[in-house]
Specification:
The structure holds 2 protein chains of 2 kinds.
Chain A lengths: L11 H19 L6 H22 L4 E3 L4 E3 L1 H27 L5 H18 L4 H19 L6 H32 L4 H10 L3 H19 L7 H8 L2 H8 L1 H17 L4 H24 L4 H22 L2 H28 L15 H4 L1 H15 L5 H15 L3 H27 L12 H19 L2 H12 L1
Antiparallel strand pairs in A: 1-2
Helix pairs in contact in A: 1-2, 1-4, 2-3, 2-4, 3-4, 3-10, 3-11, 3-14, 3-19, 3-20, 4-5, 4-11, 5-6, 5-11, 6-7, 6-8, 6-9, 7-11, 8-11, 8-12, 9-10, 9-13, 10-14, 11-14, 12-13, 12-18, 13-14, 13-17, 13-18, 14-16, 14-17, 14-19, 14-20, 16-18, 16-19, 17-18, 17-19
Chain B lengths: L2 H20 L6 H26 L5 E8 L4 E7 L1 H24 L6 H20 L3 H19 L6 H32 L4 H6 L1 H6 L3 H15 L8 H4 L5 H7 L4 H11 L1 H4 L3 H23 L4 H21 L3 H32 L15 H15 L5 H14 L6 H29 L16 H19 L1 H4 L1 H12 L16 H26 L12 H24 L4 H20 L16 H20 L4 H21 L3 H22 L15 H29 L8 H12 L4 H9 L1 H23 L12 H11 L15 H24 L7 H19 L1 H7 L4 H21 L11 E4 L3 E4 L2 H33 L1 H5 L10
Antiparallel strand pairs in B: 1-2, 3-4
Helix pairs in contact in B: 1-2, 1-4, 2-3, 2-4, 3-4, 3-11, 3-16, 3-20, 3-22, 4-5, 5-6, 6-9, 9-12, 9-14, 11-16, 12-15, 14-15, 14-19, 15-16, 16-17, 16-18, 16-20, 16-22, 17-19, 17-20, 18-20, 18-23, 19-23, 25-29, 26-27, 27-28, 28-35, 28-38, 30-31, 31-32, 32-37, 32-38, 34-35, 35-36, 35-38, ...
Classes of the chains: A mainly alpha, B mainly alpha.
Chain lengths: ~475, ~950
């Protein structure tokens, strides 16, 4: 047995994030008291640098290291860049919010950074072991972040429920993995793919597949494993909600692609039916339940479920176009969701969370610019042409139509139309309802700039989506 | 200018203007108007300049790369039909800008108005010039958005908000359907390029997806054009400022629907489905709109319903599937735009100058504003289809089309009659519009004194009315070439023969026109009295307001039903969620089993020993008991968990794994104590839990039990199936073979821990140290809940009894409860220490090792604490766990670094043996030093955690509430 020195340089982005996390931990210990400004800026710098490092070291490379448990390829690179940049955005939103509530400390950003590390590991996983390690790292951070405000009973309850359910689903995922391991006798995804392709040991793989799908669907928050989403979205602090609602969705795509496409892609026929049920269920439950919400965070939670249903259409198609469409969907959805929650943060102030849909009333009178941002975001979430949300929907619909599942596309469109109602309700509140206290917004300039930038990004991507579509396509083409 | 430049500037100009307009100061009315006017004028000139390129079937195209990955280009395309629409959009746009300059009051925020207006114009031009389907839908939605903003312009009025909302809801929903339809259409054709789609008519009509695509596209078009049954939003949209209505409802927004119908006419028309859906919808709208228009009391409401009716007419013409009808439809698009725009502006002038639009209050305005009255009369006559005006021409073409037999069905035969009837209605409402407003006695008590509007406000109306007249009298010379250009673009070279002459001789259509005029006059005469006194809306129908139905349906479906569904299926209870999660997983697993067989290799497993079975039964019972009691009695549950752990430990012994068994046993002890110490701070038992008396609760629990049993046994079965498979080739063989030769030990487990995988172990013990520190840090500031801060019940009772002896003389009260165990433990402690050292040293060859030794030592310490009490122990023994942790880590790391001195890689171990007195031959590998580090660290870490927990009990006594009760010195302190 010889010891082989792994190629550490290949995993430079992760190593960088980990080292910086340690550094921030120590720095924050000694530089507390000044609102953890140093920690915040270090974390933000780390994220940007990690995105840059990912592009520098991993775009256009396809190689594995650490005995084949870690892979660097375009898919991983794109995901990492998206995860880092989205988290950057989320943190930019968070700081003001936390400061106003005296909750600001380096811990929040540190937990987030470690979560990003977990997501990056998931993106680069090339073995069941790595997938699971990354996943657990993310989840641990998420639990802690959801329970971040200990005084908040709703948040604590949400965290507790999330923990129990997530532990159970992780158990199932692990169980499925162990079965796949039993069938394939290997943890390496490439070898698993080879075993799955030759068609032997079918039943064991089928069981493993089922449990893995259950676990993955839970991470996405797809029906019937969606229960945690509304509770967590509503219960957690808004910055945490944004965090939960953006980058982890992209990481979930990584989870799906790594496990069920890279690993068990040969069994596509078997998981297609289950994924279809999940997708249709998510579309139905997400859209119908979102209609009756009065809390905007909860509403966006259900809308997430609906979007996950859409995203699954890309997987169901089972083609390269489908997967890249799903990836595109996840990335753009992250951007839109971040913006929507950003508006909630913008409206909130100490002692007032602005988390009711009614609180959107009269935004146009208070600041017409952000009313436009909200309008763009809501239209984009609806999927109105000219916004980026449209291309996302179009690509996944195209993918399923191309494999002759027209009925599925029709169902999806029907639910999308239903979904339009609750987004338009928000638009109505913003533009046509008045509130008695039309007081000006008190958000800081920084937050305003970030939010405006987010809206602009959605708009620009809506007009020139091609480079991102291309990137997603190339990433999936390997 | 080249074609490309023309088209691009035509598209961009309005949007650029909109952007500039948005940033002008709020009081710059004139600048705004000039800017918008100039933009509209330039657009008009640009469009006119395109004319010579699009005559006789010419098509201008500009293509730019947009989404190459999807094979989608940004295409601007102008043919004759698009040119016609572009003319209407820009021309009427220009007039409306002029009109709006005088109409809008100084209080209105003008920048917003003109900005939205120009943007809307741009969106409309985008729809018209779109060269691919996606682009078309994109601009289509933009028109919806900007019309929404325009309709809701006076958003301080509730009516404006409702109207805008309804318009948006209906048209945006339709837009999404349209999008889906376009996607299917693109899928069918294989391209989204409009030219290719129009050329693929045959393919589309014969495709299996034709019907879904058609229905979805029609949903988009019909909602936009306010066709039955989606007509109800348009009258609501009349709350918009009149210039907006004049623009949106004459030439642009609602025309977009019929534009689309005509645009896709070559691709989609010609089937029965088209005839029935489009034709019927148009027919019903045509008649219904005209009928309802008669009963309106609001001038703009009347015009709104008349617009609906005329759009119905156009839709009907396009739906008839004949080229001639299509030509008539296109012709009517032009005519309707001219007379309706002028009528809306006229109504706006009346509103502006008198302050009301209520027909019942208006009367005899001819006296005050004769010019306006004349203009309105001409326009209304055009609307009614009076000869020598443009409306007459297209209406007569329509009548001629209804007569031309198609298939002889019942509908076909009644069509001329229905058409004449609708014609009568339209004459009636036109007559009413004029007669009630301008004639009769002078109106009294108007909000303002009526007079003629400013010169330039009337100018657009004059221009349009002149157009009506000119077209009506000399159609061949004026509109003839334009119509031909437009119709050519839709119908292609096979243009049907049609005659635009005013006079065709005494024909049946003329008779129908005359009948319509006379009948209309008669209807008006009959209804006049009723209408003047009447309320808004027609008899009977009045109560059936579609907008209320719409709202109610919307609320019911989107709120009540969805709410009911949520109450039925949604839950926030964790138990239910868990049940769902497990249940679904179970179903999914069963599903993958369906139709297949789970192959279990029974031969692999040996026969079951009865003793072993008994052991496991006990263990399982303990586990189940613990699960049952966990909610009610934590201590009992903990004890049962301990039982299960013990069984696990024995199982390891049974399976010949002494190392594991030992570890398991010791870990079990330590964790039990840990949990026990933690339990001290939780309520002992939960009171007030429903004991399950009620049937529903009992049923639910039984259900849960069944679910748990099924899921559990399923999992066990699967696990068994996996484990009975041949094990994969693992690295265990390597370790077995090389443990002694390379690691110098026969206890393979230990050799792996300290040698082969030494680096892992180093990491693990580091983590253990950190965990201990974290627990300590967390507990340092731990404040127990107030209800668990008191001394435990038993202790309190005993204390009370001891403190107040009823009969005993003082000094005889027993204080040392644990004196004997304490003494025993004092004796035992050194022996336990020796045992730990023994386990440590022999670990390399026999069961034992640093970890086990460490836990053994900890157990000794623990027993000392339990028996002797914290204060007693700490008065005599200075345990400094943090130092132990540091020492252990340093030792372990130092061993690793030591290898560097001999130029070996980190943690390379050196194995040797030494003859020791008493113990005998003992391994003296450098790994032993490493193991010592592990031992020291484990002791330190465990002690730190235990002490942190144990110290809580002392702290609680220091709290005021505890001090209040009499606290005797704790056991063992005396």
């Amino acid at each position: 047995m010889t010891f082989e020195m792994p190629d550490f340089l290949l995993a430079l982005p992760e190593i960088w994030v980990l080292s910086m996390a340690c550094l921030v931990l120590v720095v924050d210990l000694f530089a507390r008291g000044r609102e953890s400004a140093l920690a915040f800026h270090l974390v933000q710098f780390t994220l940007l640098a990690a995105a840059w490092l990912s592009i520098e070291t991993q775009w256009g490379v396809t190689a594995t290291t650490f005995s084949g448990t870690y892979v660097a390829d375009k898919f991983a690179c794109l995901l990492k860049v998206a995860i880092c940049l989205l988290t950057f955005l989320v943190f930019a939103y968070s700081r003001d919010y936390l400061r106003k509530r005296d909750l600001l400390s380096g811990d929040f950003f540190l937990l987030g950074l470690l979560g990003v590390l977990g997501m990056m590991i998931m993106a680069s996983a090339h073995s069941l072991l790595t997938v699971y390690l990354g996943l657990e790292l993310v989840e641990l951070c998420l639990f802690a972040m959801v329970a971040y405000d200990r005084e908040n009973r709703v948040g604590s309850e949400a965290a507790m429920k999330y923990f129990v359910l997530a532990a159970l689903s992780s158990g199932m995922l692990l169980y499925g993995m162990s079965m796949v391991y039993g069938a394939a006798q290997s943890l390496d995804l490439a070898q698993i793919a080879a075993i799955a392709a030759n068609g032997e040991s079918g039943l064991l793989l089928a069981f493993g597949l089922t449990f893995i799908l259950v676990g993955v669907a839970f991470k996405f928050g797809a029906v019937p494993f969606h229960m945690w989403i509304p509770d967590v979205y509503q219960g957690a602090l808004t910055p945490v909600t944004v965090y939960v609602g953006t980058a982890p969705k992209i990481a979930a795509v990584a989870l799906f692609v790594r496990l069920l496409v890279d690993g068990l892609g040969a069994l596509h026929d078997q998981w297609q039916v289950m994924a279809t049920i999940i997708a249709v269920g998510s579309l139905a439950v997400g859209n119908l339940f979102a209609l009756v919400q009065t809390n905007i965070k909860r509403m966006l939670g259900y809308s997430t479920i609906a979007h996950v249903g859409f995203l699954f259409l890309g997987f169901i198609a089972g083609t390269e176009e489908g997967y890249s469409a799903a990836l595109f969907y996840a990335i753009t959805y992250g951007l839109m969701a971040a913006g929507a929650f950003g508006v909630v943060i913008l409206l909130s102030r100490r002692g007032f969370e602005a988390d009711l849909i009614e609180d959107m009333k009269g935004l146009n009178d208070r600041h017409s610019g952000f009313a436009v941002v909200m309008l763009i975001l809501m239209f984009s979430l609806t999927g109105v042409p000219g916004t980026v949300g449209f291309y996302a929907k179009w690509l996944v619909l195209k993918a399923v139509i191309d494999v002759n599942m027209v009925w599925l596309a029709v169902v999806a469109v029907i639910f999308a139309v239903i979904g339009a109602f609750y987004y338009l309700r928000v638009v109505r509140m913003v533009y046509f309802d008045r509130r008695s206290d039309g007081e000006p917004l008190e958000a800081s300039t920084g937050l305003r700039i970030v939010l405006a930038g987010n809206g602009l990004a959605v708009l620009v991507l809506g007009i020139f989506p091609d480079s991102l579509i291309m990137a997603c396509k190339v990433a999936l083409a390997g | 200018m080249s074609n490309a430049t023309l088209l691009i500037s035509l598209t961009i100009l309005p949007f650029a203007g909109s952007l500039v307009a948005a940033f002008l100061p709020a009081n710059a009315r004139n600048i705004e108007a000039w800017l918008s006017g100039l933009i509209a004028l330039s657009a008009l000139i640009l469009t006119t300049a395109c004319y010579w390129s699009v005559t006789a079937g010419g098509v201008m195209r500009y293509e730019a790369q947009w989404l190459p990955t999807l094979g989608l280009n940004f295409i601007l395309r102008m043919d004759g039909f698009a040119w016609l629409f572009a003319m209407l959009v820009t021309g009427i746009g220009l007039l409306v800008v002029l009109y709006a300059r005088y109409y809008m009051s100084p209080q209105d925020p003008v920048p917003r108005f003109f900005s939205f207006f120009l943007a809307f114009m741009g969106a409309m031009l985008g729809v018209v010039l779109a060269g691919n389907l996606i682009q078309l839908v994109f601009f289509w939605e933009l028109t919806g958005l900007f019309s929404f903003l325009l309709i809701g312009y006076w958003h301080h009025r509730a009516g404006a908000r409702d109207g805008a909302r309804m318009a948006l809801t209906v048209t945006a929903t339709g837009g999404l359907c349209l999008l889906a339809g376009m996607l299917i259409l693109g899928h069918v054709v294989g391209s989204y390029d409009l030219d290719e789609v129009l050329a693929a008519g045959e393919l589309i009509r014969s495709h299996a997806l034709y019907l879904p695509a058609l229905i979805l596209i029609l949903l988009g078009a019909l909602t936009k054009s306010a066709q039955f049954p989606f007509h109800f939003w348009l009258p609501q949209a009349m709350v918009a400022p009149t210039p907006v209505s004049a623009y949106l409802h004459s030439a642009t927004l609602v025309k977009a629907g019929v534009f689309l119908l005509a645009r896709l006419w070559p691709a989609l028309a010609g089937t029965d489905a088209w005839l029935w859906i489009v034709g019927m919808s148009g027919l019903v709208t045509f008649v219904l709109g005209a009928y309802l228009a008669i009963f309106q009391q609001d001038l703009k409401g009347l015009l709104a319903y008349s617009t609906i009716s005329h759009l119905g007419l156009i839709t009907l013409l396009l739906g008839l599937n004949t080229p001639l009808a299509a030509v008539a439809g296109i012709f009517h698009i032009i005519n309707h735009a001219t007379f309706k725009a002028s009528l809306f502006m006229g109504a706006g002038i009346i509103d502006h100058e008198t302050g009301t639009r209520d027909i019942r209050r208006l009367s005899g305005l001819y006296r005050f504003m004769p010019i306006t009255a004349t203009l309105a009369m001409v326009a209304a006559a055009a609307m009614a289809g009076v000869p020598l005006l443009n409306g007459f021409l297209s209406k007569e073409m329509f009548f001629a089309e209804t007569i031309a037999a198609h298939d002889g069905s019942l509908v076909d035969q009644t069509l001329p009659l229905v058409a004449t009837l609708a014609g009568m209605f339209s004459v009636a409402y036109s007559l009413r519009f004029i007669h009630e407003t301008f004639f009769g006695p002078p109106a009294v008590a108007l909000p303002r004194v009526p007079h003629e509007p400013p010169r330039w406000m009337r100018f657009p109306v004059e221009l349009l009315v002149v157009a009506c007249l000119v077209v009506g009298i000399i159609p061949e010379l004026t509109v003839g070439p334009v119509l031909e250009t437009a119709a050519y673009a839709v119908l292609g070279p096979a243009l049907p023969q049609y005659n635009l002459a005013v006079w065709h001789g005494f024909t049946l259509p003329l008779l129908m026109s005359v009948a319509a005029l006379l009948g209309g006059a008669l209807i008006y005469r009959l209804l006049r009295e009723h209408l003047l006194g009447g309320v808004e809306g027609p008899p009977l129908w009045r109560h059936l307001k579609s907008q209320h139905i719409f709202e109610r349906v919307l609320v019911t479906v989107s709120w009540r039903w969805a709410g009911a569904l949520k109450n039925l299926l949604g839950t926030r209870h964790l138990q239910v969620q868990l049940r769902l999660l497990v249940g679904t997983a179970l179903i999914a697993a069963l599903w993958s089993l369906y139709g297949r067989e789970l192959a279990v290799d029974h031969t692999a497993s040996p026969a079951l020993d009865p003793a072993f079975a008994l052991l496991w039964t006990v263990g399982a019972t303990c586990a189940v008991g613990a699960a049952c009691l966990a909610k009610y009695h934590r201590l009992a549950a903990l004890i049962l968990v301990g039982g299960a752990g013990l069984v696990t430990s024995i199982t390891f012994v049974w399976l010949s794994a002494p190392d594991l068994a030992l570890t398991q046993l010791l870990v079990e002890i330590v964790t039990t104590v840990l949990i026990l110490l933690g339990l001290r701070w939780l309520p002992k038992r939960i009171e007030g839990i429903d004991s399950g008396a009620r049937l529903r609760i009992r049923a639910r629990r039984l259900g849960d039990l069944a679910l748990a049993l099924v899921a559990g046994s399923g999992l066990s079965l699967l696990a068994y199936a996996v484990m009975s498979r041949p094990a994969p080739s693992s690295i265990s063989r390597f370790f077995l073979e090389h443990a002694y030769t390379e690691g110098g030990g026969t206890n393979v487990v230990n050799v792996i821990l300290v040698d082969f995988r030494g680096f892992d172990t180093l990491g693990e013990i580091t983590v253990l140290g950190i965990v201990a520190l974290a627990v300590y840090a967390l507990l340092r500031r731990f404040r127990p809940a107030s209800d668990s801060i008191d001394i435990p019940e038993q202790q309190r009772l005993q204390n009370a009894r001891d403190a107040a002896p009823p009969l005993r003389p003082p000094g005889t009260t027993l204080t040392d409860y644990l004196a004997i165990p304490a003494v025993i433990m004092q004796l035992m402690f050194p022996f336990i220490g020796v045992l730990a050292m023994f386990l440590l040293i022999r670990g390399h060859n026999l069961p034992g090792g640093g970890f086990i030794a460490g836990i053994t030592m900890t157990v000794g310490l623990l027993l000392l604490y339990i028996a002797g009490g914290i204060r007693w122990v700490e008065a005599r023994l200075h345990v400094r766990p943090v130092r132990w942790i540091a020492m252990g880590l340093l030792l372990a790391a130092g061993t690793g670094v030591g290898a560097w001195l001999f130029s070996y890689p980190f943690l390379t171990s050196y194995a040797a043996h030494a003859e020791l007195p008493v113990i005998g031959r003992a391994p003296l590998a450098s790994a032993l030093l490493f193991d010592l580090g592990v031992f020291v660290l484990v002791v330190g870490a465990m002690a730190l955690i235990l002490l942190a927990l144990a110290h809580q009990s002392i702290r609680s006594h220091r709290t005021p509430s505890a001090k209040a009760t009499v606290t005797p010195p704790s056991a063992g302190e005396t």
